[in-house]
């Protein structure tokens, strides 16, 4: 019985909790048992909070018994990426430099989750400071893809994606700076949304590149993703870029779309620059085009759209992002919190402690980006690199504005390839190039969703939907319809085809 509970969707879990079919303690316990059984193989979590999760579950159960009016997701457990601060619970960003650090406060999105009375199962693994796309660059351990334990689960929110795909959590929080929600969702057959920048507060989310960082929801289906979106989104005066009119009410949009199953009048633009070609796996492109046919059958019109400056988006991102990384990561100095390493010999000066701490505490990828970022911001190179990249960013934003004058959504494959084997892409440049499909949305601050479109050589393929700023509802409307059509074509939810762990 208990392992069956973990197979239910979050919406089903919520409905059955409300109907009194089982308690939040039973539900949370079922997930903890599955976590304990599978973690040696999957490694989705950096730490699991058995006691905290069960205490939160008991509190909901008690409130329900007393007849309290509860939020829809009350009692449904959730996993949180270890980039988000959780008061009293270790938060590391998967870096040695924060090993053992216990935040004295909650990230706003975590506070929102607690206000909705959702037990937090634990903190999920990531590439150190969210830099990467494979979760191989965690300082602690790698995470396996439940579809094939020899393959990467994507990244940097790979722990959250793997926890969902292994049924170790029904809902999970991710963050997306250049694709870190959408790409892991794509390669694990799950759903992930990068909301409009400013929808979910960044307060208490350890900063990578602040003008791009976007926390968002991940789940096994579109409705569950929408339910978590509505919990996470809020206006937050503690984040100066927070939107006062953050898009919410996404679950209602999904339910209406599922009832109507109609896309009549929807104008879909296929981004010509991201529609296959060099570096794209054939099965990925085939699956993408099959999904386009499904959209067309549901009444959408499809046309090809050119975004001429997309060609330069990747380069701009890999200048702007490290520039912001280098300044954000300057705070890890061994003085105030986190790791402190004193020089082995010689005087203990502030500068020498910083050098020893940062040398020992950061992994190679973090160091690479700090050095690159410091270089592009240095007096002699600022205009040539950082300044030019900002101009390209504006051009990319204008391309999107122009495109959205003609179409309602833009689409592409989420990732050019499916999950690859550990160690297969070990040089940084090869890894960076795989972000070509996801990065433009971050530069433009627009919302994006990845949902499964099918399989290629037995592995899941992700379909990406992009919409104008604040039009997150379009992702959910189209995603809900496409999900149903894909499920109909493959005969059930794609994830059911994953090898059973
Ligand atoms: N893979 C991208 C990078 O390495 C995206 C990371 C992210 O979105 N956090 O920068």
From TrEMBL:
One of its GO terms (cellular component) is glutamyl-tRNA(Gln) amidotransferase complex. It catalyses: L-glutamyl-tRNA(Gln) + L-glutamine + ATP + H2O = L-glutaminyl-tRNA(Gln) + L-glutamate + ADP + phosphate + H(+). The keyword Transit peptide does not apply. The active site is at residues 81, 156, 180. Residues 26-475 form the Amidase domain. It is an enzyme of class 6 (ligase). Keywords: ATP-binding, Ligase, Nucleotide-binding, Protein biosynthesis. GO terms for biological process: translation. Its EC number is 6.3.5.7. One of its GO terms (molecular function) is ATP binding. The keyword Protein biosynthesis applies. Belongs to the amidase family. GatA subfamily. Allows the formation of correctly charged Gln-tRNA(Gln) through the transamidation of misacylated Glu-tRNA(Gln) in organisms which lack glutaminyl-tRNA synthetase. The reaction takes place in the presence of glutamine and ATP through an activated gamma-phospho-Glu-tRNA(Gln). Heterotrimer of A, B and C subunits. This is Glutamyl-tRNA(Gln) amidotransferase subunit A.
């Amino acid at each position: 019985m208990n392992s069956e509970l973990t197979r239910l969707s979050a919406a089903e879990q919520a409905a059955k909790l409300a109907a009194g079919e089982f308690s939040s303690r039973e539900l949370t316990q079922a997930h903890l048992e599955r976590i304990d059984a599978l973690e040696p193989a999957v490694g989705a979590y950096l730490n699991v909070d058995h006691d905290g999760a069960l205490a939160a579950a008991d509190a909901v159960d008690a409130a329900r018994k007393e007849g309290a009016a509860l939020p829809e997701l009350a009692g449904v457990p959730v996993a949180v990426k270890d980039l988000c601060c959780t008061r009293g619970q270790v938060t590391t960003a998967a870096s040695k430099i924060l090993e053992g650090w216990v935040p004295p406060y909650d990230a706003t999105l975590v506070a929102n989750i607690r206000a909705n009375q959702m037990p937090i199962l634990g903190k999920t693994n990531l590439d150190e400071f969210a830099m990467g796309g494979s979760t191989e660059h965690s300082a602690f351990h790698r995470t396996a893809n439940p579809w094939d334990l020899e393959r990467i689960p994507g990244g940097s929110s790979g722990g959250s994606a793997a926890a969902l795909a292994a049924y170790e959590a029904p809902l999970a929080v991710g963050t997306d700076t250049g694709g870190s929600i959408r790409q892991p969702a794509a390669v694990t057959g799950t759903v992930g949304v990068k909301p409009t920048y400013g929808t979910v507060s960044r307060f208490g989310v350890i900063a990578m590149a602040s003008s791009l960082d976007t926390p968002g929801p991940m789940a096994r289906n579109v409705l569950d993703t929408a339910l978590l979106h509505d919990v996470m989104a809020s206006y937050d005066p503690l984040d100066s870029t927070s939107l006062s009119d953050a898009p919410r009410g996404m679950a209602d949009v999904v339910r209406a779309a599922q009832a109507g199953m109609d896309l009549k009048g929807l104008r879909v633009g296929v981004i010509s620059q991201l529609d296959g070609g060099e570096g794209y796996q054939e099965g990925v492109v085939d699956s993408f085009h099959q999904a386009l046919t499904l959209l067309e059958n549901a009444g959408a019109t499809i046309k090809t759209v050119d975004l001429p400056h997309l060609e330069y988006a990747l380069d701009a991102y890999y200048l702007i992002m490290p520039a912001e990384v280098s300044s954000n990561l300057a705070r890890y100095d061994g003085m105030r919190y986190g790791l402190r390493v004193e020089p082995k010999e010689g005087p203990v000066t502030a500068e020498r402690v910083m050098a020893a701490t940062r040398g020992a505490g950061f992994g190679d990828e973090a160091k690479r980006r700090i050095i690159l970022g410091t270089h592009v911001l240095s007096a002699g190179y600022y205009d040539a690199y950082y300044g030019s990249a900002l101009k390209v960013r504006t051009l990319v934003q204008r391309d999107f504005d122009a495109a959205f004058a003609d179409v309602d959504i833009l689409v592409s494959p989420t990732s050019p390839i499916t999950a690859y084997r550990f160690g297969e892409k070990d040089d940084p440049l090869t890894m960076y190039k795989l972000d070509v499909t996801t990065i433009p949305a971050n530069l433009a601050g627009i919302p994006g969703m990845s949902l499964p479109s099918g399989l290629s050589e037995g592995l899941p393929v992700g379909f990406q939907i992009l919409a104008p700023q604040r039009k997150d509802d379009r992702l959910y409307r189209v995603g809900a319809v496409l999900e149903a059509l894909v499920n109909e074509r493959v005969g059930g939810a794609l994830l059911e085809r994953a090898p059973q762990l």
